[in-house]
Design brief:
Layout (H helix, E strand, L loop, with lengths): L11 H7 L15 H10 L10 H19 L3 H15 L1 E8 L2 E8 L4 H20 L4 E3 L8 E3 L12 H18 L3
Antiparallel strand pairs: 1-2, 3-4
Helix pairs in contact: 1-5, 3-4, 3-5, 4-5
Length: 184
Amino acid sequence: MIEFQQAGDPVAIAVDLANTWDTLESQHEQLREVADLRAFLERHAYSGAAAADERDLARVREFRDELRAVFAEPDEDRAAMRLNGLLERSGAVPQLVPEGEEWALRHTPVGSGPSARLIAAASAAVAEAVSALGWERLGTCEAAPCTCVFVDRSRSGTRRYCCRLCADRAATAAYRERRRGDPG
């Protein structure tokens, strides 16, 4: 699937994690076992991915479901409360870390382990996206039955779909509906 999310966008890990539950896949759950979590962590260059265990898998799935609820929450105040709760539970502490010749701000959890780092990074990335772009830029795909989430970084702020595949599916469905209604 070709995603609209830009490579290297810090919030991409949060979006990718939230979308490990995908209603368009034959098996909705994409993090079925520890090996799936390890592969996800490796794709996102997390050190210690091999150390992930059943407890990490359970924590990440629970966090993922709570994160999806932030994206789906229509009320900004309740969404902020949900996200603030995730940030607080993650124990994310902002720290400057060397990145090549530069310094980068990373949110490091008080605890250790791959799930703790993933949860802290994803929570902080969504909070930073909301701070920079606003709540209206968090979205859930409008191409039913898809329920994937996205962060709209488009200039116009009118994105409605998680990926090009869903945008194409919706356009095709709308075209077919118009054709059915066309008496000619």
